């Protein structure tokens, strides 16, 4: 890696974070999910207990990402639903308290790219691809350097062993299998 002279740099005509370790700021990061109830209504939830780091390399494709998610930190705006999500029928946080993502390959072009990696939820690991956008950089009032990014993907929750559902009298299922994941991430440059 190169010496950090500035928290951002120009890479192929685009502003990107400088090489270094960028630690995820859990207070300003969320992993959100969207499923459908009765196969119609979008139900949103989020996890706020996010930890991890992005190690940015000189070549963005050589960067790495490791993230941990506290599954008990789920919030959906409804306490009863949150308890059901934490229960053995769904996330089973007593047995599987954390989920994790570890990058395995990055294809970067301009201010965005695809991050392939291994997502582990409910004790099951599957390969997923995230569409990522670098949203920008800010210097905070305390002299810290912050990078902001967003990402999205879709998964089938049953691929991760989360199969609870109920059949509807009119056909279909109570909860969709396909779940949309949206990530909004803020990271702070360590040692700057």
From TrEMBL:
Pfam family, any one: YceI
Q: Where is the Lipid/polyisoprenoid-binding YceI-like domain?
A: 21-188
List the Gene3D superfamilies: Lipid/polyisoprenoid-binding, YceI-like
Please report which protein family the annotation says this sequence is part of.
Belongs to the UPF0312 family.
- The name of this protein is Polyisoprenoid-binding protein
Q: Which species expresses this protein natively?
A: Paractinoplanes rishiriensis
């Amino acid at each position: 890696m190169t010496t950090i002279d500035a928290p951002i740099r120009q890479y192929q005509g685009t502003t990107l974070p400088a090489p270094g370790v960028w630690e995820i700021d859990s207070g300003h990061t969320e992993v959100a999910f969207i499923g459908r109830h009765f196969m119609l209504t979008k139900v949103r939830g989020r996890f706020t207990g996010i930890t991890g780091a992005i190690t940015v390399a000189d070549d963005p494709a050589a960067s790495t990402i490791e993230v941990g998610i506290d599954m008990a930190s789920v919030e959906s705006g409804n306490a009863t639903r949150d308890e059901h999500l934490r229960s053995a029928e769904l996330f089973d946080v007593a047995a599987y308290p954390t989920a994790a993502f570890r990058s395995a390959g990055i294809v970067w072009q301009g201010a965005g790219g695809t991050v392939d990696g291994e997502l582990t939820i409910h004790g099951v690991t599957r390969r997923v691809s995230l569409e990522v956008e670098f949203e920008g950089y800010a210097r905070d009032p305390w002299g810290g350097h912050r990078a902001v990014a967003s990402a999205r993907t879709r998964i089938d929750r049953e691929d991760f062993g989360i199969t609870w559902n109920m059949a509807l009298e009119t056909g279909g299922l109570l909860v969709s299998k396909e779940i949309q994941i949206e990530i909004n991430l803020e990271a702070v440059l360590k040692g700057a």
